[in-house]
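re the bet — no i am not wrong, look at it urself. input seq straight from the record:
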Amino acid sequence: MSFTKGQISVETMVIVGVILVLFAVVSTTVVYRNIQSQIIDDNYQEFNLCEEVSMLITNSYSHGPKSEIFITSKLDIIIADNEVNVGSNYCQVIGKVNDVTLTAGIIRIKNVTGVVQLENI
């Protein structure tokens, strides 16, 4: 059998092809798992913020007028119909609270004459 420069056997091409396919499958799986992990982490952060804001509103309401609490949020928050909405998470609020849309940043939670008000500062 005579080999000349530049020849490659069919078996070698098949092996290289199989290795490339395996690499593509593993890479795709890793990327998919990273994306799923990020989605779960984002949802977890939204849920925690929702619960925290709901609890702080309830605390402010129960402490009575002139109570004031500050919180820093990295996410936007919507409060409507005694529910806190952060992303796709909803949390119930006990007490009276004004409807408001808040952007990320420092938020003041203040009980004014028995009604809790939230505002960006």
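see?? The radius of gyration is 28 Å. told u. also The CA atoms of residues 82 and 93 lie 5 Å apart. so pay up
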